[in-house]
Amino acid sequence: MSRDTLSRAEPVTSKQRAPQRRPRRASRTEARNRRAAAGFVLPFLALFGLCFLAPIVYAVHQSLYRTERTGPLGLGGREHEAFAGLANYAHALSDDRFLTGFGRVLLFGAVQIPLMIVLATTLALLLESASARGITFFRSAFFLPYGVPGVIASILWGFLYVPGISPLVKIADSVGWDVDFLSRGTVLWSIANIVTWQFTGYNMLVLIAQLKAVPGELYEAARIDGATAWQVARHIKLPLIRPALVLTCVFSIIGTLQLFAEPMVLRPLASSIDSGFTPNLHAYSEAFVGNNQHVAAAEAVLLALVACVLSFGFLRLVGGRAKERG
């Protein structure tokens, strides 16, 4: 081979070797980025597993066992846990008070959730209208009840419900109305009033945040075309805040099934509220009053399953209707 041929071959060899160094640098950068991403994600995953997954696994484990006691009538001797299979779930599903509590909260949600969402949507549209005045004040005033803990809110409204000290009852008596907010037929709706008062402002802010994301050019174009405020709200605002409406409905469904603080606080004031008034209250009574934590765990798992079924069922229903319209 001649020297000219070798001199020509050397540059080709250097060009072939140069690209081999770049992938190494790129791979090192990618590995460094992956380690950095893992460093940010791992703390969240650890907290998620510790505070969310671990309690679920423990509850499912507890629901599959039962406590057996030895000695006369099971009052003495040792205690040990034995595998029970689905016996705790069968016990929970055969309890009439537990099933009645489920029916009660489903009725509660069927009435309270649409009322609260309609009220929150109305307030959001009014506060985001072009002619609204004092937006900051009213927005803060409507959101303020959400900052009150559920226990404190129930105590405050309890004073307004108890006959003898309630100004509302006195006003009703003065006009000839016999009102008992804590009777068996009305106590559920008294609790619904507390929940609506507390969470309407929160849902309103979620909807307002969605309205803020709507481009102002759409409103200007609609006004140029002669659309009224009602037409803008109906044909532009409501369709565009649909994702926020779905989100608030899902949160409300889950919150309804978790109803606990309000009936628990009002229970000493109302004889109509028993230990099985809601599924959550029944599970609490089984665990800390009846000392039957395994049945309580089974009821908690059933409650979580019902919440998942209703939430995903609502999402599928809404998604199916959206596809039909599209």
Number of strands: 2
Strand content: under 5%
* Helix and strand sequence: HEEHHHHHHHHHHHH
Most strands sheet: 2 strands, antiparallel
Radius of gyration: 30 Å
Distance between the termini: 72 Å
Q: Largest beta sheet: what is the strand line-up? A: 1-2
Low-confidence stretches: 5-10, 12-16
Helix content range: over 70%
Mean pLDDT: 85
Which class of secondary structure composition applies to the elements? Answer: mainly alpha
Distinct helical segment count: 13
Shape: flat
Describe the structure.
This protein has 326 residues and is mainly alpha-helical. Strands 1-2 form a two-stranded antiparallel ribbon. The longest helix is centred in the N-terminal third of the chain and has 61 residues, at 3-63. The chain has helices spanning 3-63, 87-93, 96-127, 135-143, 150-161, 167-174, 187-212, 216-224, 229-240, 242-257, 261-266, 279-288, 293-325, and strands spanning 65-69, 79-83. Mean pLDDT is 85; it is low at 5-10 and 12-16. It is built from 13 helices and 2 strands, in the order αββαααααααααααα.
